[in-house]
Amino acid sequence: MNTLAFIPSPSAGEIYLGPVPLRGYALCIILGVFLAVWLGGRRWVARGGQAGTVADIAVWAVPFGLVGGRLYHVITDYQLYFGEGRNWVDAFRIWDGGLGIWGAVALGAVGAWIGCRRRGIPLPAWADALAPGLALAQAVGRWGNWFNQELYGRATDLPWAVEIAPGNRPLESPDLATYHPTFLYESLWCLGAAALIMWADRRFRMGHGRVFALYVAVYTVGRFWIEYLRIDDAHEVLGLRLNNWTSVVVFLGAVAYIVVSHRRAPGREKVVEPAALESAEAADTDPTAAKDASARSASAKGTPSGEDASADVASDADDDTRADRSTADGTRRTTKKA
């Protein structure tokens, strides 16, 4: 198979910073998480929430999501870790790749639910703010598969094919070097999904979890046809890969949620974070609250502030005036005696 052009794969899956190896797969995951939290935080504040809330809840959601993604991968591809000649310890080597999106979303939602309950905010509203960021995170995270030279598609001679090193090629085609870059297809699909989600959210003012449901529905459509191109080992049911069936079921669930949710609670939430609303109302009804807080803070530090400082200056001036009068009276009395 003659290929005029192709995407080269990296010669190594890690970059060394001195003696410390920085694995490309882990770097892509980390960058994706930061991007999702950053965009989600901006969207949350725009919806009336407080800055920092998305990041605080992400502290719960991200670890849960990583564990869930790894569990899904290990369970659905157990033969890679528990088959003959395999080492079960490799199931913990997450940096070598292997995160299932469905497990990450499911268990990550549990972590987010815990964080939302602690902050007293509705999970659907938080998920809506985070949805486009999740799509962008997936767009970045998929490049980790490029570093590991994994999860590519069928052999092809298209000019955007990805070159795979001999040690990472399928046993059935060791002489074929270029394959469909399914990681690139999914990355581009997720970028388009993020743009579509943000447009739809602005256009229709979606809320109550429908933005997140739209993200799930759009992603599953792309995942279905991309999964069809992949040639890595996977369980099949009725001629379709397990992830294809999962995409169908999840897509139908997401669409059903959008329809039912819109009928029960049309529009967007008026309040997404009660604490933010209470702070705003307190500032409007009691404009001296901030000044009092500043005075209490200054008093605690032993430093005069605001009106207290002005009172101290006036008191000092009165003391100086009384001292001057006392000196003048003493001078007059001395003159008379002389």
TrEMBL record:
GO biological process: lipoprotein biosynthetic process
Signal peptide limits: none
Region (Disordered): 277-338
Protein family according to the UniProt entry: Belongs to the Lgt family.
Enzyme Commission (EC) number: 2.5.1.145
Protein's name according to its UniProt entry: Phosphatidylglycerol--prolipoprotein diacylglyceryl transferase
Gene Ontology MF: a single term: phosphatidylglycerol-prolipoprotein diacylglyceryl transferase activity
Gene from which the chain derives: lgt
Enzyme class: transferase
